[in-house]
Write a structure and sequence with these properties.
This protein is α/β, with parallel strands linked by helices. It has two domains: 191 residues, Isopropylmalate Dehydrogenase; 148 residues, Isopropylmalate Dehydrogenase, CATH 3.40.718.10. The protein is built from eleven helices and twelve strands. A ten-stranded mixed sheet has the order 2-1-3-12-11-4-5-10-8-9, with helices on both faces. Strands 6-7 form a two-stranded antiparallel sheet. Helix 9 packs antiparallel against helix 10. The structure holds adenosine-5'-triphosphate. Adenosine-5'-triphosphate binds next to loops.
Length: 363
């Protein structure tokens, strides 16, 4: 039996409303699991924490999170609570920096019968992963940009070290996916190498890493073309790898393709740590109303089980991750107990009750 400690940030806005039921599901899965055991520790962090404690990510929280096997985070930040310089409170970005979580993983899946504003050709389904570099790129000067008189400047930074780690991660991901019968074994570098030297440098490093993975197909796309292709033929892609800002934008496009932010999970992964959180923010407009969609959080938890399972050679965790995904897919395909953001009328607790039934009713 492998024991794993999970650090939990319930965060702000709808954060606690989607985190609590997700942790309940995980606890229940773990309680019947034969080969793994999960324990959870709630940690203060976020805009509410900043108001209460004067810190958005207390050192003690960071230390516990750093010692945990994985970190689950819902959403942090509220528009009205800001640092004295007027910037938003984003401890989720601080966590990426503190733990060097360079690979932002944003899966885009549309199973047959799934949600999508696209008219899907018969027999087509979408299953690709966007890997977004998450510690540098155009976010390098985040909060440190210069505005002088009539000019504003930010800096885009691409380093060889981080790019090599990022591309290695992307090729390994494509290799794992191919081994699992998911994806064709292809990595596409998304850049703007025709205009910017920094991206020509990025592409050069990509090509070198590609040469070390001959079993995986490698190609390139300009980011503007990729935005078009993600809408016109998203079923053609397997693993896309890109810079931070491009990834930020394309991942919301990906979320839109599969029905919206309420169903879009993500993970930020480094060599030794990983944070799993939905793509969406704290949704203050619906906080406290009991109508938040829990699916993105649940799917992020499934990614956590997958990651832990792969790292620790635990096939039961991978199976439970697949069960969570299948239960969410089943509910979406059956258009059963869906929340308002994806066309239903269910409240959060009704959506969770249907999910719980699908997962455990037969047990
Ligand atoms: P951030 O900048 O922190 O990413 P944001 O301001 O872009 O946040 P979100 O908080 O993600 O925005 O919310 C965008 C819209 O999507 C809001 O109208 C919100 O209510 C809706 N939304 C986000 N997450 C969910 C969810 N889980 N369930 C239902 N609606 C959601």
């Amino acid at each position: 039996m492998s024991a794993f400690k999970i650090a939990v940030f319930e965060g702000d806005g709808i954060g606690p409303e989607i985190m609590k039921p997700t942790v309940d599901l995980l606890r229940r899965m773990s309680s019947v699991a034969k080969t793994y055991d999960l324990t959870f520790e709630n940690l203060p962090g976020g805009a509410g924490c900043y108001t209460d404690m004067g810190e958005s990510l207390p050192k003690a929280s960071l230390a516990v999170a750093g010692a945990a096997d994985a970190i689950l985070l819902s959403a942090m930040g509220l528009p009205d609570i800001r640092y004295p310089d007027g910037t938003e409170i984003t401890p989720q970005i601080d966590l990426r920096m503190a733990f060097d979580l360079f690979a932002g993983i944003r899966p885009v899946r549309i199973p047959p019968g799934g949600l999508s504003p696209l008219k899907m050709p018969a027999g087509k389904s979408v299953d690709f992963v966007l890997v977004r570099e998450s510690t540098e790129g155009l976010f390098y000067t985040q909060g440190k940009g210069k505005v002088e008189h009539d000019e504003a400047r930010e800096t885009l930074r691409i380093t060889r070290g981080t790019s090599e780690k990022l591309f290695e991660f992307a090729f390994n991901l494509a290799t794992d996916r191919k081994a699992q019968g998911q994806g064709t074994g292809r990595v596409t570098c998304v850049d703007k190498a025709n205009v910017f030297r920094a991206f020509a440098f990025f592409r050069e490093i990509f090509d070198k890493t590609a040469g070390e993975h001959p079993a995986i197909e490698a190609d390139h796309a300009y980011v503007d073309a990729m935005a078009l292709w993600m809408v016109q033929r998203p079923w053609d892609f397997d693993v896309l790898v890109t810079e931070n800002m491009f990834g930020d934008i394309l991942s919301d496009l990906g979320a839109g393709l599969m029905g919206g932010l309420g169903v879009a999970p993500s993970a930020d992964i480094g060599q030794d740590h990983a944070v799993f959180q939905p793509c969406h923010g704290s949704a203050p407009d619906i906080a406290g109303l009991g109508v938040a969609n829990p699916f993105a959080m649940v799917l992020s938890a499934a990614m956590m089980l997958d990651w832990l399972g792969l790292r620790h050679n635990n096939t039961e965790m991978a199976k439970d991750a697949a069960r969570l995904r299948e239960a969410v897919d089943g509910q979406i395909i059956g258009r059963k107990a869906l929340t308002g953001d994806i066309g239903g009328t269910a409240r959060t607790d009704e959506a969770v009750a249907a999910l719980t039934d699908a997962l455990f009713a037969a047990a």
